[in-house]
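User: tokens in, sequence out, please.
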């Protein structure tokens, strides 16, 4: 096995183990710790910490420790969050959530930087186009990574499935499910009762072990890597303050200012699925025991489409995939506005989560590859910006989740999606226009030569 592929697989399986634990914990926070809003507050502070971290930490940590050890250090923050859940209180969950948020941005920036450098290095060796190899590596990564949702939710579903059977959901509750849910029915029902403490400890033990394995896998088997481009240029790295401000300085690029809506929408749509679809549609109409299984469908389609898009983008280009993602999400949003969920329509719950996975795979694979290709010389700052704006999307979405009706949230999603696609189309137009200039210049040179010969 070639070295570059081995390293991609090590990163991928490390993230698989880590997010098997974190993904399962995230989707259960509001259900397990609903007292006084502890779970929602933990998620809000988590993404608030990630937002602050995205502004400064990623370029500094990557420059100081390199991509490999930045990933290892950041993963340890996730382990701390798992441990904090064993004794969940305001004094354990909130601080460990902030710590996880601070580690999340460097983790993802280091991962994006590592795969981009690895893809460009391998493309140079094999004589291939760097963009195509980077796309393929991100597709492979997200194929493995997105399956973490399958395993994390399967584990929670199997563990919590040992609870006693629950009664049917009353028709009165079904009337307030779906887009009409305005959080009026907040009382605990049989469908949302807390599992026993023994089962919770069992689940947390499995998740913590998975997180520790992720840290060990990356620390032992991942090879450090240096940016060959900077090495050729003899660049020892910019000064400290320049590195600190590089995230904001990159916003001077018009393309990045236009592209900030893409990661923001990614945060909005993921927050809607994890917070609103699971609660106002699945839990409300089917019960909490079905949340894991519905999310497994999302993760499975997301994982399969991720590797498919990595290969498909080489033939269709990224614009076609963005169009597919936008149209699919548009149809889902409109349908969710009109649909009245009911237990008799069990298959429909899985169809929506599957289609959501088809679209989310576009945002995850193509957004990362797009940032890596367009801002190749400023990869660390570019991926830090990506996590900054995605975190802002999460913070805003979780911020209004407790006081807006679901139909209003869907209209917000629709508006942000439309603006994001308009801005993305503008960037593609600017890139096409820039690529056309050298070609026009090359065509002009032979014409000038012919005029010279005629004059002679």
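Assistant: Sequence out:
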């Amino acid at each position: 096995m070639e070295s570059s592929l081995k390293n991609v697989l090590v990163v991928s399986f490390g993230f698989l183990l880590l997010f098997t634990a974190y993904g399962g914990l995230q989707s259960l926070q509001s259900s397990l710790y609903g007292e006084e809003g502890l779970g929602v507050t933990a998620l809000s502070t988590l993404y608030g910490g990630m937002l602050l971290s995205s502004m400064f930490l990623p370029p500094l940590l990557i420059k100081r420790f390199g991509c490999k050890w930045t990933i290892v250090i950041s993963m340890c923050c996730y382990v701390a969050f798992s441990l904090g859940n064993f004794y969940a209180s305001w004094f354990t969950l909130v601080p460990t959530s902030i710590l996880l948020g601070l580690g999340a941005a460097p983790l993802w920036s280091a991962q994006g930087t590592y795969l981009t450098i690895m893809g460009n290095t391998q493309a140079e060796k094999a004589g291939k186009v760097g963009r195509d190899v980077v796309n393929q590596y991100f597709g492979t990564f997200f194929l493995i990574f997105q399956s973490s949702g399958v395993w994390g939710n399967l584990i929670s579903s199997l563990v919590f499935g040992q609870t006693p059977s629950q009664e049917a959901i009353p028709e009165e509750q079904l009337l307030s499910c779906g887009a009409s849910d305005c959080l009026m029915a907040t009382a605990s029902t049989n469908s949302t009762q807390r599992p026993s403490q023994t089962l919770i400890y069992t689940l947390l033990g499995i998740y913590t072990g998975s997180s520790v394995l992720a840290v060990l896998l990356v620390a032992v088997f991942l090879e450090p890597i240096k940016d060959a481009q900077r090495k050729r240029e003899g660049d020892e790295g910019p000064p400290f303050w320049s590195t600190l401000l590089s995230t904001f300085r990159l916003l001077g690029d018009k393309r990045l200012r236009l592209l900030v809506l893409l990661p923001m929408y990614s945060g909005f749509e993921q927050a809607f699925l994890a917070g609103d679809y699971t609660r106002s549609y699945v839990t409300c109409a089917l019960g909490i025991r079905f949340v894991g299984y519905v999310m497994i469908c999302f993760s499975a389609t997301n994982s399969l489409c991720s590797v498919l898009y990595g290969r498909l983008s080489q033939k269709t280009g990224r614009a076609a995939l963005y169009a597919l993602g936008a149209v699919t999400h548009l149809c889902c949003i409109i349908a969710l506005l009109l649909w009245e969920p009911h237990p008799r329509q069990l298959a429909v719950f899985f169809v929506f989560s599957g289609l959501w996975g088809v679209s989310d795979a576009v945002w995850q694979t193509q957004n990362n590859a797009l940032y890596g290709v367009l801002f190749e010389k400023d990869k660390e700052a570019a991926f830090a910006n990506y996590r900054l704006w995605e975190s802002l999307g999460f913070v805003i979405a979780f911020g209004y989740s407790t006081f807006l009706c679901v139909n209003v949230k869907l209209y917000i999603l629709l508006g942000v999606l439309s603006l994001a696609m308009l801005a993305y189309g503008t960037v593609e137009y600017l890139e096409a226009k820039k690529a056309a200039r050298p070609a026009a210049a090359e065509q002009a040179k032979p014409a000038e030569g012919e005029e010279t010969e005629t004059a002679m």
